[in-house]
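Tokenise the fold.
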Amino acid sequence: MLIRLHFIHSLTFITLLISGLFLYITPTRTWFNKVQIPLVSVHVVTAVIYIVIILLSIRFLLSYTFNKPLIKKFNGYLILVFASLWIFSGATMYFQSSLPIVIRNNAVIIHDWCTFLFIPWVLTHSIGHFLHIRISWPKWWRTKAPLPDALQENSLQRRDFLKFFGIGILFVAIGGYIKWFLPTLSISSNEDKRRGYFRIYNVTDDFPRYEDTDWSLTINGSVNQTTVLTMDDVPLFPETTIVDDFHCVTGWSVHGVELKGVLLKDVFDHLGLTTSGKYVTAYSGDQTYYDSFTTSQILDEGAMLVFEMDGQVLKKTQGYPCRLYHPSMYGYKSVKWLSQLEFSKERELGYWQKSGGYDLNGYL
């Protein structure tokens, strides 16, 4: 029974690890979005199966390791500790909308670090089994030999201490190295990681190249006049700057982001625009992504057209030259490369409402 559970556990864990890394790495996450494979759902369903396996395995694991060498106990208990951290942090991320920001942010950090710190152990464990490589552990660690006097007296020998300490530091260093440098494709080189970093999520593997073509924003539908804004029109409107925390529905946040642009209410007031539509759909210039709002959310709740972030013009991956931003909503409502605002009397479901079951309003 334990052998079967071990096999199922290994298969499920590898699926979780690979799907989690694919979600973490921008190009792979984008590819799965493009081919419409619900990777988030796959990861969540696999996680539920993994939890069931862990619960079924605990009694067998404790019974199996009771009279086994220390290395067997260490491997079993290490898996239980990391599994517990993954489960609790993952559950926190899944139900994060009802939890304080500090808790869900720390849950993301714990979930990430557990994964990357565990990768060296997975590689060592797997390669060792497949290639039948054995590390020259002390006899008392890998067999049921009696403990040496030094250990019984709680006094490690210098050689044993250096070996365990060195391997521990090596694993932490490898996992930390991967964790620290892997997101560099998603962030600028000078970003302060202490306040968090943006994980770039796109639904296509490319984006509009507005440095090569002129950008414009069309406001149409149930409005008194169809209007097309260009970059030349932006200085006509009052400039607004806010400092806000940017939150993603997956749990991560970036604190103290400076956003500069113009309020949509100011655009409407300055141009004398009115609308009879109760809803508005915001379309991205990537020709794929879109989301919807009530007209009140767009005009009365501080929604803005953002052109600069942290004192710099938006980067291409951040939605250059213009993205929509609502200060009380999650990042998936912040449509990048904004190209059209279409007002209507009926509300459209957004991209992630259709593809991922996200909340229609997306309030924090």
Notes: The longest helix spans residues 101-131.
